[in-house]
Specification:
By secondary structure, the protein is mainly beta. It is built from three helices and ten strands, in the order βαββββαβββαββ. This is Pyridoxamine 5'-phosphate oxidase family protein.
Length: 170
């Protein structure tokens, strides 16, 4: 590969990063399990300023992420064109326990892809959102019109991105 094959790397504006995040359904949850880094692919939804993930009560994931600072990553890569983008969310994971929130989430999604009961809901507030792209992968902000998708959070609905990363209080 020569340097003429390389492409510039650029930051993605936070609002566009949220639109890209909301335009996908599968990402990677990065957390600590037994003092070691762990990465789990999960399906998710973005709404109300957070990433939402269903998990089973028997899953070690729900207990490992409760109140922990986690990362969530989603990307799209075109190997042939050598274009792509990546969005990373940092936030303090919360287990949703309020019955009305659980019921609302069942109606709005995400719908679990894996069979079996999923009675635990993890919410990751969009406390820090960053994104990067290479090549022309995200040259047009209209490429991922998440605001038009029902149950999704578009950039027009999000007014602030930076909140301190601190575990949620009692």
């Amino acid at each position: 590969m020569s340097t003429s094959d390389t492409k510039p790397l650029a930051e993605i504006a936070p609002a566009q990063a949220i639109d890209l995040l909301a335009s996908r359904e599968v990402g990677r949850l990065v957390y600590t399990r037994r003092a070691l880094p762990a990465i789990t692919p999960v399906n998710y939804a973005v709404r109300e300023g957070a990433v939402w993930i269903w998990t089973a009560s028997t899953s070690s994931l729900a207990q490992a992420v409760r109140g922990a600072v986690v990362a969530f990553e989603v990307d799209e890569i075109d190997r042939e064109a050598r274009d792509g983008w990546s969005v990373v969310v940092l936030g303090v994971a919360e287990l949703v326990v309020a019955p009305y929130e659980l019921e609302q989430a069942r109606e709005l999604g995400p719908d679990p892809w894996v069979s079996g009961r999923r009675e635990h809901l993890v919410r990751i507030p969009l406390q820090v959102v960053t994104g990067r792209r290479i090549g022309a992968a995200v040259a047009d902000p209209a490429a991922a019109p998440a605001a038009a998708r029902p149950g999704r959070l578009g950039s027009a609905a999000w007014s602030g991105l930076s909140e301190p990363l601190a575990p949620a209080g009692p």
